[in-house]
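Fig. S4 source data, part A: sequence.
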Amino acid sequence: MSESPINRIESARLFQQMLAELRAVAKTNRIEMLANLIEIAYIEGSHQLRKDLGAGSRVNQRNVSA
């Protein structure tokens, strides 16, 4: 099954939100290595999201909050 660009973007944003929350919990509890690994995943997700937004010609930019 093919996923529509909007669903992919919404999924990526959900992952970013969850990763940000997990990173905060790890930092609060001074689990630095895990916080750093989560940060890497967050950054990779950001890059992918930017790539998808740039490539998604069918996605209306004003309807997708950054």
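Fig. S4 source data, part B ends here. The chain has two helices and no strands.
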